[in-house]
C-alpha cells in the first residue's frame, strides 16, 4: 500500500511516494504549466496536469492515500459551472492601494498578520472596481488546493491554514471573521466563502492539505530551535512557536498540532536569475560564467537592491523598486551579476536574522541552497545550515495524509538520509560582506519615502 504527497509549486509539480509496506520511496517531478492572461493566472492547465498525475499514481503505482501541498494563496474565482474564471498569485500587487484605508492593527489582532499582498480582501475590492462582471459570475472563492480537492471529491472546502493567509480568518475561532469583513466592506461576499476545514480533512482517501510553507515545516520537523529555509523561486524561512507572535515583519501561519509557524517569504528570488538572463543579457552569450556556484565569494563595489516586484518580508512594501548602487567607470555587467547573486544571500539573511533572538539551526533546501549563497547566509546570520536534499513540501503533504488516515510512519529516516552537508559560519566571509550587507539594508531605509511617491 502506498501513500503520496503532491506539491504544486510555481516551477514544478512533485509527488513523493512512499510504500508503507517496505518503507521505500521515490519522487516524480514535472514542470508546472504556468500561463498568465494579464494579471490572471490560468489554473486549468495546472489542475489538468495534477489530475493526470493522480491517475498515474493510482493506476500505475497503486497509490491509495493522497495529500496536497500548493503554492498559496492562489485566489481563485469559480463560476456556477464550477470552472475557474480567474486566479491571482500570492505576490500579485493588485489592490495594494486599498491598504491605507484600513486599520492594520485590527488585522494583527484578529488575523495575526500585517497587511500584505498575500491577502485577498484588497484583490476582491480591486476586482469589484475593475472587473465587476467577474464578481457577478463568481459562485465561490477558493484556493488552488481547495479547487483540486473539489474536482476530486465534489466538495467545496478550504483549509484554515490558507484561509489565515487570505487575511479573513479569525485565528482564535478558526472561522471567517465578520469583524474584518465589516472593516473592509465585504460582508456581502460571505456567501462566496467556502466552508472551512482542517488540512487533514479527507474524503475517499483524498486529503485537502495546505500551503507549501506549512507542509515544508512539518516535513523538516520545525520547532522553536529548528528553522527551515527554502531557496527556490522565492525565498521562505520560518521557525516554530507555541504561541502566536503578531509582527509587521513576518507572517504567522498555523502549524497543525504544533502551534504557529513564524515565517517570512520574499517576492522574487530564483526568478531574479531568470530576469537577469532575459532582460539584461537578453539570451545572448554573457562573456562570463553564469554558473551560480562559480560566483566569487568576494563582494564588488556594486550592491543590488532586488525589489523588482515590491517586497514581502520583512518590509512588506509593494512600492519598493530595484536599485543598483555603487557603479563607477570600472563597473561592468559581470559586477551586476555578482551583486545580484550576493543580493540573494542578503535577502535570506535579512529574513533569517529577524526570526528569533534565540540560537537555532536552519534546515535548508531548494535549488539555490548552494555556495556561495548558503555560505554567505550562514556566515552573516551566524547560524549553522543543514543542506537537506528532499522535496520537503511533497513529503509534508504525505505526512498530512498519513496523519489524516491514522497511518503511523517513520518519516525521520527520509529526512536524515536526505541531509547531505553542514555549512558552518565563517568569520572571514562575514567580515567581507558586512559592509555591502549594511548598504543593502540602508538603501531601503534611505529610499523608503521616495518609493512611496514613485
Model description:
The chain has 454 residues and is an alpha+beta fold. The chain has a single domain (1-454), classed as 2-Layer Sandwich (Nucleotidyltransferase, domain 5). The protein contains 14 helices and 24 strands. It has helices spanning 44-59, 104-110, 121-130, 132-137, 144-153, 160-166, 178-183, 212-219, 270-280, 333-352, 373-381, 392-404, 412-418, 427-451; strands spanning 2-8, 12-19, 25-31, 36-37, 40-41, 63-70, 75-79, 84-88, 138-142, 157-159, 169-170, 175-176, 195-197, 202-203, 206-211, 226-231, 235-241, 251-255, 259-265, 303-305, 323-325, 361-365, 385-388, 419-423. The strands form seven sheets. The protein has a seven-stranded mixed sheet, with helices on both faces. A hairpin with a 3-residue loop joins β18 (251-255) and β19 (259-265). The mean pLDDT is 95.
User: What is the SS-derived class?
Assistant: alpha+beta
Mean pLDDT, nearest integer? 95
Q: What would CATH call the homologous superfamily?
A: ATPase, nucleotide binding domain
What is the rounded Rg? 22 Å
Q: How many beta-strand elements? A: 24
- Per DSSP, the total helix count is 14
Physical arrangement of strands within the biggest beta sheet:
18-19-17-16-22-23-24
How many structural domains can be distinguished in the coordinates? 1
Strand content: 15-25%
CATH architecture call: 2-Layer Sandwich
Tell me roughly what share of residues is in helical segments.
Answer: 25-40%
Please give the CATH class.
Alpha Beta
**Shape designation:** globular
What separation lies between the terminal Cα atoms?
58 Å
Indicate the low-confidence ranges by residue numbers.
none
Largest sheet: 7 strands, mixed
At the third CATH level, what is the topology name? Nucleotidyltransferase, domain 5
Amino acid at each position: 500500500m502506498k501513500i503520496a504527497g503532491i506539491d504544486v509549486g510555481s516551477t514544478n509539480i512533485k509527488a513523493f511516494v512512499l510504500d508503507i509496506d517496505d518503507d521505500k520511496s521515490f519522487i516524480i517531478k514535472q514542470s508546472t504549466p504556468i500561463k498568465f492572461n494579464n494579471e490572471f493566472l490560468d489554473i486549468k492547465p495546472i489542475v489538468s496536469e495534477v489530475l493526470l498525475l493522480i491517475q498515474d499514481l493510482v493506476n500505475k503505482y497503486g497509490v491509495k492515500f493522497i495529500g496536497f501541498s500548493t503554492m498559496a494563496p492562489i485566489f481563485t474565482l469559480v463560476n456556477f459551472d464550477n470552472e475557474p474564471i480567474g486566479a491571482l498569485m500570492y505576490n500579485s500587487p493588485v489592490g495594494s492601494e486599498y491598504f491605507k484605508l484600513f486599520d492594520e492593527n485590527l488585522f494583527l489582532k484578529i488575523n495575526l498578520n500585517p497587511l500584505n499582498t498575500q491577502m485577498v480582501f484588497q484583490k476582491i475590492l480591486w476586482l469589484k472596481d475593475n472587473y465587476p462582471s467577474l464578481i457577478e459570475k463568481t459562485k465561490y472563492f477558493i484556493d488552488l488546493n481547495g479547487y483540486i480537492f473539489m474536482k476530486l471529491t465534489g466538495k467545496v472546502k478550504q483549509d484554515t491554514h490558507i484561509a489565515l493567509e487570505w487575511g479573513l480568518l479569525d485565528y482564535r475561532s478558526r472561522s471567517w471573521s465578520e469583524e474584518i469583513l465589516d472593516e473592509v466592506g465585504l460582508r456581502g461576499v460571505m456567501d462566496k466563502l467556502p466552508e472551512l476545514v482542517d488540512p487533514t480533512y479527507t474524503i475517499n482517501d483524498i486529503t485537502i492539505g495546505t500551503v507549501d510553507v506549512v507542509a515544508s515545516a512539518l516535513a523538516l520537523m520545525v520547532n522553536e530551535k529548528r528553522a527551515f529555509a527554502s531557496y527556490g523561486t522565492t525565498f521562505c524561512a520560518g521557525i516554530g512557536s507555541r504561541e502566536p507572535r503578531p509582527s509587521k515583519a513576518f507572517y504567522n501561519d498555523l502549524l497543525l498540532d504544533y502551534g504557529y509557524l513564524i515565517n517570512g517569504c520574499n517576492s522574487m528570488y530564483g526568478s531574479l536569475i531568470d530576469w537577469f538572463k532575459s532582460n539584461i543579457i537578453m539570451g545572448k552569450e554573457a562573456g562570463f560564467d553564469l554558473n551560480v556556484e562559480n560566483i566569487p565569494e568576494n563582494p564588488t563595489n556594486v550592491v543590488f537592491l532586488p525589489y523588482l516586484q515590491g517586497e514581502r518580508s520583512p518590509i512588506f512594501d509593494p512600492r519598493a523598486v530595484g536599485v543598483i548602487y555603487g557603479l563607477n567607470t570600472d563597473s561592468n555587467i559581470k559586477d551586476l551579476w555578482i551583486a545580484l547573486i550576493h543580493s540573494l544571500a542578503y535577502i535570506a539573511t535579512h529574513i533569517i536574522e529577524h526570526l528569533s533572538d534565540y540560537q537555532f539551526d536552519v534546515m535548508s533546501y531548494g535549488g539555490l541552497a548552494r555556495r556561495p549563497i548558503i555560505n554567505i547566509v550562514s556566515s552573516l546570520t551566524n547560524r549553522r545550515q543543514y543542506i537537506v536534499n528532499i522535496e520537503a513540501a511533497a513529503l509534508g503533504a504525505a505526512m498530512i495524509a498519513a496523519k489524516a488516515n491514522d497511518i503511523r510512519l517513520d518519516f525521520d529516516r527520509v529526512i536524515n538520509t536526505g541531509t547531505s552537508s553542514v555549512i558552518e559560519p565563517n568569520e572571514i566571509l562575514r567580515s567581507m560582506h558586512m559592509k555591502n550587507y549594511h548598504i543593502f539594508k540602508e538603501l531601503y531605509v534611505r529610499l523608503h519615502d521616495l518609493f512611496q511617491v514613485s
